[in-house]
Design brief:
The complex is a heterodimer of chains A (118) and B (304). Chain A is α+β, with helices and mostly antiparallel strands. In chain A, 52% of the residues lie in helices and 14% in strands. In chain A, strand 2 and strand 3 form a beta hairpin. Chain B has two domains: 143 residues, no CATH class; 145 residues, no CATH class. Chain B is 71% helix and 6% strand. Chain B has a four-stranded mixed beta sheet with strand order 1-2-4-3, sandwiched between helices. Chain B starts with a helix and ends with a helix. Classes of the chains: A alpha+beta (118), B alpha+beta (304). Chains A and B meet through helix 1, helix 4, strand 4 and helix 5 of A and helix 4, strand 3, helix 6, helix 7 and helix 8 of B. Chain A: Pfam families: Penicillinase_R.
Chain lengths: 118, 304
């Protein structure tokens, strides 16, 4: 039995990999773990919609789900924050080091060469 | 009048000391001691500046700031009614306003930081993967170099895919030792009030510089911890590789320059000769911090 967090991840990956909106039944068929109860899949899809990661539309008596944003968009959001390039939403992370460019980068590159030669 | 004058003097001393401390370089030789001094200065300045205004306003009560304030808030009536009271009334309003600002704005900013971290954590759980080569570390598929610690009750160390290809295994080990030092010593809690104060008072140069200083000192403290477990030289080369691996356009100007200076300062500490501040100096600074931190609360209690 997988945890809910793990299932959320698997289901998002399934929906990101396909371009069409899927129903809970279709998602359930694509999950490798065959022992999963259909209600569990529905619960996770519902949770993800409430968190804003999925959008759902009516299709007859069922709902069809699709990602609200692409995987790349979320990766970009995370990494912009990690590199301290966002202005407003600052999670005050402790970053290893910042990258610099131009003449500053030249100074660091020279120091790196010197250290490696020693 | 003694309490008001003493608190005003204390607030001035703290402001001048904070300004001097942003320029000081001995802090790099004893980052942990310097962080403590910063915390002590911050708390003392807040208590002293609000206390000075309130001590003057509540002087007619003759009970000191703490009890005078309780008395005033309990009755919500300013007891002294003379024509000359306008100045004291102004001090009362200013003192209460400053106290409210110093308490609520950092709390609101802190809450926003926690929300941003929560969102970050949720996104990570959907996107990051585990890599067998680096157990316990979350890996995000992204070409640029990034390594950071997402703080919380269960802090997570996160690196980008690009980091794995940028660094040698010894360098990666050094970076991870550095990041787990952040986790173990809960550096995020040190940073939180300074980051919150900066968000609350973004126009204040001293606050901005203070936060930048503390950020750098925390990195140095983590470097110090990491060098006990790994080769300092590998940590230094990892720093330089990170600094030059700009896959994204970095912010121009002062930030870039100070980032480069910070990287070089940390590298020089790691490869240079050992220059830890002598123990008796550190002890003196520590004692000073304690005296400072206890002086303001005491002055809040002195009547008159």
């Amino acid at each position: 039995m997988k945890g809910l967090g793990e299932l959320e991840r698997i289901i998002m990956d399934i929906l990101w990999a396909r371009n069409t909106a899927l129903t809970a039944r279709e998602v359930g068929r694509l999950i490798e773990d065959r022992d999963l109860a259909p209600t569990t899949v529905m619960t996770v899809l519902d949770r993800l919609s409430r968190k804003g990661f999925l959008e759902r539309t009516r299709d007859g008596r069922a709902w069809r789900y699709q990602p609200a944003a692409s995987r790349d968009a979320y990766v970009a959001e995370l990494m912009l924050e990690a590199l301290d390039l966002t202005g407003d939403r600052d999670a005050a992370l402790t970053r290893f080091a910042r990258a610099v460019s131009g003449t500053e980068a030249e100074i660091l590159r020279k120091a790196l060469t010197e250290l490696e030669e020693q | 009048m003694i309490a008001a004058a003493g608190l005003a003097a204390l607030a001035t001393v703290c402001a001048v000391a904070a300004w001097r401390l942003t320029l000081a370089r001995w802090t790099w030789r004893a980052p942990r001691t310097a962080i403590l001094l910063w915390q002590s200065l911050g708390v003392t300045w807040g208590l002293a500046s609000t206390g000075a205004l309130l001590a003057y306003a509540l002087e007619p009560y003759r009970q000191g700031v703490a009890y005078g304030l309780i008395d005033f808030l309990a009755r919500l009536e300013y007891g002294v009614r003379e024509p000359v009271d306008l100045l004291r009334l102004g001090a009362l309003v200013a003192g209460l306003a400053l106290l409210a600002v110093l308490v609520t704005l950092p709390m609101a900013a802190g809450a926003q930081t926690l929300r941003a971290r929560h969102r970050h954590r949720v996104l990570l759980s959907l996107i990051a993967r585990d890599e067998p080569a680096v157990p316990g570390v979350r890996v995000v598929d992204f070409p640029a170099a990034a390594a950071y610690c997402l703080p919380g009750l269960k802090s997570q160390v996160v690196i980008s895919d690009g980091t794995l290809s940028l660094l040698s295994s010894a360098e990666l080990e050094a970076v991870l030792a550095h990041e787990s030092a952040h986790v173990r010593e809960r550096h995020d809690l040190v940073l939180l009030p300074f980051a919150a104060l900066r968000r609350a008072l973004p126009w204040s140069k001293v606050v901005r510089d203070a936060q930048a200083s503390v950020e750098l000192l925390i990195e140095m403290a983590a470097d110090d911890r990491a060098r006990r477990q790994c080769c300092p030289r590998r940590l230094a080369t990892a720093l330089l590789r990170f600094g030059t691996a700009a896959a994204l356009p970095t912010p121009q100007g002062a930030l870039g320059a100070s980032a480069a200076t910070n990287v070089m300062a940390r590298v020089n500490r790691l490869v240079g000769s050992d220059l830890t501040l002598p123990a008796h100096h550190r002890f003196l600074i520590l004692a000073g911090s304690v005296v400072l931190a206890t002086s303001a609360p005491l002055l809040w209690l002195i009547p008159g």
